[in-house]
């Protein structure tokens, strides 16, 4: 296990190493212009190209530099596609084959590990050796892969600064940096004074070429990288309330079409399962928007667009279902007695894995086909020629409120009819209605007070979770029955026992959820929630 003395630290091994060698340059009011109160080491990125000779010429002749070793490192910073590490205040970087993960606000939380085969391949937490590093990364990144930044090549030379008495007053590192993928190059210096020579070192720093001050070496390095394109899987849309519903619908479709396109590369590379999930959900939201928000568009052209999204769903749905099962392998294993989680269980998941591979390759071929490109071109043209498809443009607020009330009432009505003896299909239909209401609430959330609208979403999510889990069990049982029939035909008794046990436990779980349904429905349909919807959307509910 590699801890504090990582490869990036080694370029500064002549410096006193404080926790994470963070620095903050503070310009205090009332001090002379140019006067600094510095926390060390100072991390300075020069604003124009510089070299060692120019650097030495900038300081008074009484001082000189003593140069030591030089070395080269290849550095990448890593984060998930949705920036989970950054959001949770973590940084992950690699220097050649050494990976370091640390919490940016807690210097005591740092982990390191060696991984020889990396390059620019996205990595799941499970790709790293088991240990504290792997567990911490898994806790932060979850099931998402970490993706590499462009490579930063860093040539560094350590040196000391000596005064006229030939005493060392500071130790430092000179860095020549380049980001080849972005055609960026820069020079920087990191300086750490010895105790008692802080003021003298500040005096020298003020004579160096103009530079930007950074809080850390990592912060300085990441400032060279291209900016990340913002990614939000569920766009929060701002509308012009003076416009009608037609431009609002267009904005909804454009935002979710963009989410689909943003996930294509990771989906094709099979980097992690969330790329397909977000791609698929974005397409389903587009379908729902077209189907629910009507009559706005000419029905003929609109139906053609709906069909293209359904076509996508035929390829993405089966792969996503298998993703869910494969991710839940440990949960499946816990569902049945240990003696049944042996050969038959392994065979079953081997079949799931093989089936997933076949269906994923079919999806990949489709996404790389001319047909898919035609779908993208059709959507691009449809959104650009929007005005010619619009046949109605009602008031945005009025129509949004009307739609939300309508679907809330339908859920109350349909949900109140369900009994423990009701067919599974009726629970499934209600689940779809709750999903429609959830989409509408999220589409138009910015039209309403955020605290109140978030309360409605939370209430609905609790209801959805029950119906969603019930539906998952129903689909799971059908899938397991299909595999069971195949195992019975092959007289594979190991698999028959395993699958029979999984079906029995799944059925029990489904029945429990059915019994819990009425208490959850009662809370959702209660007076408090009805008043909340009435307060937001008006009218009696």
Automatic annotation (TrEMBL):
Q: Which PROSITE patterns match?
A: CHAD
Q: Which residues form a coiled coil?
A: none
Please give the superkingdom of this protein's source.
Bacteria
Q: Which residues form the CHAD domain?
A: 242-541
| Protein name stated in the entry | CHAD domain-containing protein
Source species? Caldithrix abyssi
């Amino acid at each position: 296990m590699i801890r504090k003395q990582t490869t990036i630290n080694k370029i500064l091994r002549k410096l006193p190493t404080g926790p994470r060698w963070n620095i903050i340059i503070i310009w205090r009011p009332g001090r002379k212009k140019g006067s600094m109160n510095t926390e060390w080491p100072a991390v300075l990125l020069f604003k124009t190209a510089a070299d060692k000779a120019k650097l030495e010429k900038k300081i008074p002749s009484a001082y000189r530099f003593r140069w030591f070793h030089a070395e080269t490192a290849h550095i990448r910073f890593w984060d998930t596609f949705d920036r989970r590490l950054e959001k949770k205040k973590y940084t992950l970087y690699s220097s050649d084959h050494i990976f370091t993960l640390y919490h940016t606000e807690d210097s005591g939380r740092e982990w390191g590990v060696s991984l020889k085969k990396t390059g620019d391949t996205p990595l799941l937490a499970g790709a790293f050796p088991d240990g504290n590093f792997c567990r911490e990364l898994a806790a932060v990144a979850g099931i998402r892969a970490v993706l590499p930044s462009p490579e930063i090549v860093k040539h560094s030379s350590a040196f000391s600064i000596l005064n006229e008495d030939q005493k060392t007053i500071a130790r430092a590192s000179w860095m020549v940096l380049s980001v080849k993928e972005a055609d960026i190059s820069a020079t920087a210096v990191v300086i750490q004074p010895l105790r008692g020579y802080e003021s003298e070192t500040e005096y020298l720093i003020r004579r160096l070429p103009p530079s930007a001050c950074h809080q850390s070496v990592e912060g300085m390095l990441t400032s060279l990288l291209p900016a990340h394109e913002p990614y939000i899987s569920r766009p929060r849309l701002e509308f012009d309330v003076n416009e009608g519903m037609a431009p609002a619908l267009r904005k909804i479709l454009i935002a979710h079409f963009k989410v689909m396109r943003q996930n294509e590369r990771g989906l094709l590379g099979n980097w992690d399962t969330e790329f397909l999930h977000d791609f698929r959900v974005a397409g389903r939201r587009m379908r729902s928007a077209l189907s629910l928000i009507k009559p706005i568009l000419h029905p003929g052209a609109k139906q053609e667009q709906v069909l293209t999204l359904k076509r996508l769903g035929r390829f993405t749905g089966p792969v996503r279902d298998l993703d869910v099962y494969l991710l839940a392998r440990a949960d499946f294993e816990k569902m049945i007695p240990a003696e049944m989680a042996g050969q038959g269980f392994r065979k079953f998941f081997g079949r799931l894995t093989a089936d997933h591979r076949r269906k994923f390759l079919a999806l990949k071929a489709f996404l790389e086909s001319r047909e898919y490109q035609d779908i993208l071109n059709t959507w691009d043209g449809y959104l650009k020629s929007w005005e010619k498809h619009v046949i109605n443009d009602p008031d945005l607020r009025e129509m949004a409120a009307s739609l939300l009330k309508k679907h809330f009432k339908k859920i109350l009505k349909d949900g109140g009819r369900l009994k423990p003896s009701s067919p599974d299909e009726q629970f499934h239909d209600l689940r779809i209605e709750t999903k429609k209401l959830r989409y509408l609430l999220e589409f138009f959330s910015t039209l309403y007070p955020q605290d109140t609208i978030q309360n409605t979403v939370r209430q609905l999510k609790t209801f959805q979770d029950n119906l969603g889990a019930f539906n998952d069990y129903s689909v799971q049982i059908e899938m397991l029955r299909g595999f069971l029939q195949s195992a019975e035909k092959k007289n594979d008794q190991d698999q028959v026992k395993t699958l029979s046990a999984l079906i029995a436990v799944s059925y029990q779980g489904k029945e429990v959820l059915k019994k819990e349904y009425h208490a959850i429905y009662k809370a959702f349909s209660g007076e408090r929630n009805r008043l909340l919807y009435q307060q937001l959307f008006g009218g009696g509910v």
